[in-house]
Every structure is written in structure tokens, then in C-alpha cells.
Amino acid sequence: MKKTTRTVFRTSLATSLAVVATGSAGVMAAAPYAFVGSDTLTEVTRDAIAQCESAGGLCTAGSLTYTNTGSGAAETALLASPPTQRIAPMSRNFKASVLTAHNGWTPQQQNIIGLDAAVVVEKNAASGYSKCPNLAAALDPAVPGKAQVDTLIGLVLSGKGGTGDTVACSHPDRLAAVDTLAGCFGGISFIDHFYRRDDRSGTTDTVKERFRVQRFCNGRAGGLVSGLDNNLANDDADPIRRSCVPQSSTHAKTSCTLWPAATQCTAGDANCTQGLVVALSQNDPNLPDITTSIARRIRLDSNNQTLGFAGREASRQTGNASTNINGISPSNFAIRTSAYIASRRLFVNWSDIPVGTGRSGGQTADDIANDTAQLNLYTWITDPVLGGRFNVDPILIAHGFLPCTDDYSDPSGPNNLCSNQLPPPAAESTPPSCIPAGLPGNATNWCCSTAAVSPAAPTVCPAYACNTANAACSGSGQGTCCTGLTCTDQGTGNFACN
User: Fold this and answer.
1) Whose CA is closest to 52, among 36, 66, 38, 71?
2) Rg for the chain (alpha carbons), in Å?
3) What pLDDT, in 10s, does the model give residues 12-30?
4) What is the fold, at CATH topology level, of the domain defined by 115-343?
């Protein structure tokens, strides 16, 4: 039965602010006002804008537009000086450092609009391939809700110990884990590429936190805020090398490099390769977001050698599926009760600092209009008096997400992830970016070769260590094996020194 008693948190304040601002903003000369946030919530947010604009005039038509640059980008926009937006669609909580500095931003229950999960996406067995039934990620009894270090997933994504440096990602245990992953599918000789979201993504933060990933084997993946070829801003440092995926009508360009020099090269060059783990920062052609881009790349692989981590929506796309983790599928029940290890909340977060605050000369009329437009949308999504869950739950369901309850009521009790104590913020465990010594952007002199910060100029970073027996190597004739060893194909598409 639907509950009739509701608790209103700060939405009343948001409503008041919106009404006041509406009276003082005047003409919105610069509308639509752009705001950014989670890629996972792209279609949910855009549909919410459209429905709010058509629902009795709470949102002015054409006042807002949404860009899916990641949860981290939304967080950054709220922290900007002056702040450029007021609300933040996010697939994770704020980071610890943000909540320490801005305690008033701590999410309340109405900020949790629904649930999702980060899943390993595979091709559907109905497409004629063996489905990988289960991946093991044994839980760590000392760290509740998180996997142990060096589970199969952690080894594939971040190498031995989860540190993501060259030595960890070349380790024989990682090479064995990649072979084990391929063997899970039956008849598949090797995994070609494992796609992930970039470092601004809440999905990435969920994977890092739950599977103890300090840094991914492909390296830094900051992407770009705007412009073409955002993928090329991402590192390609994975020592397990594969053939480059060419740009096409269905694939945006991704980094292909001369490894380990990380120099961009042209696909087709015999020495040009691409790492096993690849980060995506831009939509593939004619797709709305990176979640569906990862889904399509997996679906179009006729050899079934492509996998990826993405939101559950990617596994629900036609032709795709998800593998179980620890024997548990990302079902509605398992997500809502948090039995599935990578279950997560979806947020529309809020800042108490209006757009443009701190600007020299004060807020402009456009700042006030922008602030008003965003607060109106926030009110439509979160305020139960004006619809709240009745407004947003049907949108979540239409796009494959899970509302907090099945009857539009407020969640309650310890067995509903929406009403449990808010989780700790996403882990901030990524070490300094891995940019090869001497290249632009290596302000901290981070040495990819040793996973340590250089004590002096970038030139003191040592060369990549040679790879010892049974360690992964590039297979591109670049002499990464130690003297006396040769980089050879092991018959599974993986190269190792022997």
C-alpha cells in the first residue's frame, strides 16, 4: 500500500529559492543553460528535463540542457569558483574531501532517486556463445562489502596488488587471470579488450571501491570536458597488448600507441598496438552515452572477445547480458538488498551555494536564471509535494533502472539500499597520473616505469624494467623482455617472456 506520510528535507528550501529567483531573473538570455553529470543518468536526466518542462510549467521550456561528462565533472562544477551549477546527477556519493568541506551537501534520502549496479557486460548466450556463468570476487572479511585484493576481476583490471603499475600489470598472476577469464566463456581463445569508463565516472569509482583497484592497468583516463576525440586524452599503458580497434561508423577513435613509449601512432602500423584495458570518454557514433557505447562494442564483436564494466543498463541492451559475481546476479532483489557486491545508489545531489556566487561584481542575471532553472528541476525530481518519486520512478523504469520502491513510497528499513545509512563516499585511491617522463602534463614527475614519483626532473625516471620469465610483454617487437628471453605468443593471444 502506498504511504501517505512523507518527510520533506531541504526541498522546501529549494522550492523557496526557486520561487524567489524566478521573480528576479528576468529574461533568460543565455538559455538553455548547460549542466553536467553522470553518464549513467544521461537519458533519465534528459527525460526529466523534458517532462518537467511539460508538467504545468514548473520548468521553463528550453531552459536546461544536459551533458554526460561524469559524476566527477558534476562534483567539480559545484566546487568551481564561482560555481557553474547547483545540482549534480551522480552515480556515486560525494567524495570524502567534498563533504568535509561542505557538510551541508551531505545527501538526504530524497537525493537518492533510485538504484543501479556496476556489472561485467558480456554478449548474450542466445547469440550463439557460451555465457560466462560466474566470476569470483571473494569478499574481504576485514573490509565489509568489498572484495579481497587480487581477485580475478582485480587482477585483470589493475594487476597484482591492484596498484596498476607496469610491474603489477605484467605479473604472471595477471596473465593467468586473463586466460582464466577467457576460459570462462568456453571455446574463446583470449579476451581482446576490456572496456571501462574514464576516471570522472561514478561507475569507475564503484569498481575501484568494491574490487580494491588503486589504479587501472591502462593508466590515467581523465578524458576531456569538450571537443572531439576525447578518448585520445586517455593513457594506453597496459603491458598486455592487443590489435588496435579502428575508428568506424560504430566506433569512436581510441588510443593506439607505440608501447611502452605511449606515442600516438596510426592504426595499421605493425608496431602500433592497444592495451587490453581501454577507457572510453566519448560516445560512439549515434549513441547517447558511453554506457550504450560499451554495450554496442560488446554486441558487435562476432568473436565474443570483448567485455566491459558499465552500469546495468548496458547488460540489458538487446544481445547483451551480465555475468554473476560470487554466484549472485544483478537482479532487482539483489541490488535493492545490496546482496550484489557492486550495487549502488543513484543521486541527484544539491549544493547550498548558488550559481555565480563569488563572481567579481556579483551574480549576473544569467547566473540567477541558471540557478532558478536547475532548482526548478531539482524540486520536480525530489519534492514529494510536487510529485517527487511519482515523477521520476516511471523514467527510471523506462531506462532499466530500479526505483527505491515499487509503489512510489519512501523507502524504509535495513533491507532497502535506498534507506540504509548513506554509504561512505567513493574511494579516492587513484595514485598520481601515469604520464611517461618528459611528456606534457607530467607536472608531478610520475614515473610509469616504477609507479613512484621522481625525486627530481622527469629525465631521472628510469626506463621500463625488463620483463622476467612468464611476465606479460607487448608482443610488438619492442624488446621488453630481459636479456635471454623472447616475447612469444603463448597460443592464447597473450604474449609472455620465455
Assistant:
1) 66
2) 23
3) 444 444 443 333 333 334 7
4) D-Maltodextrin-Binding Protein; domain 2 (3.40.190)
